[in-house]
Amino acid sequence: MESTRHRFMWRCQRINDFSALDDRDPIPQRRSWWCRNILLTSTRGLLMTLIDSRRLTEDLVRLGEIGRRVAGGLDRSSFSPADTAARQWYIDRCTRSGLDVQVDGIGNIIVGSPIADALTDTDRPPVWSGSHIDTVPNGGAFDGALGTLAALECLRRIHEEKLVLDRPVRCVVYADEEGNYAHLLGSRAITGGVTRSELESLTGRDGDRFVDTFTAAGGDVERAADSVLPEGAIDSSVELHIEQGPVLEAQGIDIGLVTGIVGLGGGTITLRGQADHAGTTPMSTRKDAGVGAGAVLLALPGIAPMVSDRAVVTCGIVRLLPGGSNVVPETAHISVDFREPTAELVGVLESAIIAEVESIAAEHGLDLEMEFEPTVPPVPMDEEVRDIICAAVEARGLTQMSIPSGAGHDSQNISTVAPTGMIFVPSIGGRSHCPEEETRWDDVGNGAQILLDTIIGLANR
Ligand SMILES: [Zn+2]
């Protein structure tokens, strides 16, 4: 009791020092006031426990060596030998610290502390924190790895300090976040669920079948299709991630308080013309699908700013068939990915893209087919979790700003079953999904500390 009162008074003293921060705090005053109240009333233990940033740095460097190409980028596609090695390294790291490791049906790794669990009420659902360790091809060392290893560092500190919390804590590695087989597969399997027939239809970037690779890696497809968590299994969740964009660094802000994850959609556009001889067919009589594809590539990026300043459109894959240098292209397949943070504007963006592509096809005399996935609506982050993150940032004397996530994350699935929040730290030059992806070590430490403070705040609220 005595020590609790002592900690409480010490916190109050820190809070009184915050007036100087308000000038540079881009969070509106109302939120600031709420944050302080939350800090005073519901985050017992906050500020007392510090992460070991050196250990976290070493973990990030070590994980960043697994699956590294000679040229510098990382290849850890999910369930590849490199991903399997990284997962085993992570599990070894956990067990060496005395933590309990479980792997669920789809391959998510879920880690708890036997010491912290003995000191809390394990009948209450746990607070979750985690991210992913798979990467895109030729990816970077911070996307997913930061949130995964920072969550592990937080759990280790809770374990080492024998913190008495009101709820258990779990750190998590989600399987196949980057969509080698299906985007956010691990978090979707435990929230919305996946069927066995869907799993059997999945193929990877290398053309392999999910069921073959998953079984070879020791997985059980029957169990994978039966991974949905019972209702109320997660109390709340928070994920630390690199911003993957330039905003925080450009504005000199330490922490991004994620307001929500953008809505997104897309699919494939197919333009069909006529294959002809490249030497004998006059330009005036051609039906060149390649020229149509070029017009689409030029036009679509221009649509985004007409919808909103946050909307983005990307055509990342173009295939021309039959693919001969002396043949007029008959068919063009173009991938489209579009994103927008405002719910009402996602549909507006999609309609504008469709109208533009229809007009281009007609202008070039090409047949058109569009196969678009149903759009995924934007997902707001939970207000209470955001307030607890905000309180932690203020208490640590760091700067913050509200920011939407332009990238998809497992948190968008977890948010459908539990209050969920996300914390961003700056990406150097805004670079991500490339070997140059990097975050300053100070920012890594700041983000991990705010993550720990938030986990404690959530566990004790
Ligand atoms: Zn990620």
TrEMBL record:
Binds 2 Zn(2+) ions per subunit. InterPro entries: Amidase_Cbmase, Bact_exopeptidase_dim_dom, Peptidase_M20. Keywords: Hydrolase, Metal-binding, Zinc. One of its GO terms (molecular function) is metal ion binding. It comes from Arthrobacter echini. The keyword Hydrolase applies. This is Zn-dependent hydrolase. CDD domains: M20_bAS (cd03884). Zn(2+) 2 binds at residues 143, 178, 433. Pfam families: Peptidase_M20 (PF01546).
